[in-house]
């Protein structure tokens, strides 16, 4: 090659080098921007997954809250929440005694006390009112019928704590039952 040929090719060679460098720069720039977009897409997908999981959790919690509110309103409607319905409890006791035909049924209803001595974490506190029952039974099943009859009272949750059966004094066929039960209710804070 001659010098004249090289001089003529100098500008096209320079243009080729500049265009090659520019092309290389554009390829690097495109790869960098692509990588940035991929990273941003990955971050957005992760954000979406977290947000979607929180939404699903909130929907589950909403369902649980609605169910708890429904149960609370049902208990409130039954009279389990608020003031005790002691008169209804005594009337239930008399009705069950008459229904079963118990010869003797005596009771002592104690004051309302917190079920748990620690202060409640919310506006409601579970309370119990103990009741001692002494009854003369004609048969063992009368005790079960008595407890089932008391449990049918909607204004409290009846929790038998203990029951003792023994033969009546004097060798009679009757049985004597000594029971302790708790009438469990919910007391609202400040009432």
Your description of this structure?
This protein has 191 residues and is of the alpha+beta class. It folds into 2 domains: 1-78; 86-188, Ribosomal protein S6/Translation elongation factor EF1B (Alpha-Beta Plaits). Helix content is 53%, strand content 26%. It contains 3 helices and 4 strands; from the N terminus they run H-H-E-E-H-E-E. It has helices spanning 3-78, 86-100, 141-151; strands at 104-114, 124-137, 157-167, 175-188. The longest helix has 76 residues, at 3-78.
Give structural attributes.
about 190 residues, alpha+beta, four-stranded antiparallel β-sheet, about 55% helix, about 25% strand
Question: What global shape is seen?
Answer: rod-shaped
Give helix and strand order, one letter per element, not per position.
HHEEHEE
CATH architecture type of the largest domain:
2-Layer Sandwich
Instruction: Calculate Rg over CA atoms.
Output: 41 Å
How would you summarize what this structure contains?
By secondary structure, the chain is α+β, with helices and mostly antiparallel strands. It has helices at 3-78, 86-100, 141-151; strands at residues 104-114, 124-137, 157-167, 175-188.
Describe how the helices and strands are arranged.
Elements: H1 3-78, H2 86-100, E1 104-114, E2 124-137, H3 141-151, E3 157-167, E4 175-188
Antiparallel strand pairs: 1-2, 2-4, 3-4
Helix pairs in contact: 2-3
């Amino acid at each position: 090659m001659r010098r004249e040929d090289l001089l003529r090719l100098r500008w096209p060679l320079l243009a080729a080098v500049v265009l090659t460098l520019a092309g290389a720069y554009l390829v690097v720039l495109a790869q960098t921007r692509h990588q940035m977009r991929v990273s941003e897409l990955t971050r957005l997908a992760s954000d979406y997954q977290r947000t979607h999981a929180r939404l699903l959790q909130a929907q589950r919690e909403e369902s649980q809250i609605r169910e708890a509110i429904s149960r609370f309103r049902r208990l409130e409607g039954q009279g389990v929440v608020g003031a005790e319905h002691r008169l209804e409890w005594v009337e239930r006791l008399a009705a069950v005694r008459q229904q079963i035909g118990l010869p003797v049924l005596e009771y002592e209803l104690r004051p309302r006390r917190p079920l748990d001595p620690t202060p409640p974490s919310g506006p409601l506190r579970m309370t119990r009112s103990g009741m001692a029952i002494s009854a003369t039974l004609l048969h063992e099943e009368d005790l079960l019928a008595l407890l089932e009859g008391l449990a049918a009272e909607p204004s409290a949750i009846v929790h038998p704590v203990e029951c003792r059966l023994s033969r009546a004094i004097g060798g009679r066929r009757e049985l004597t039952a000594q029971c302790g039960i708790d009438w469990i209710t919910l007391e609202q804070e400040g009432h």
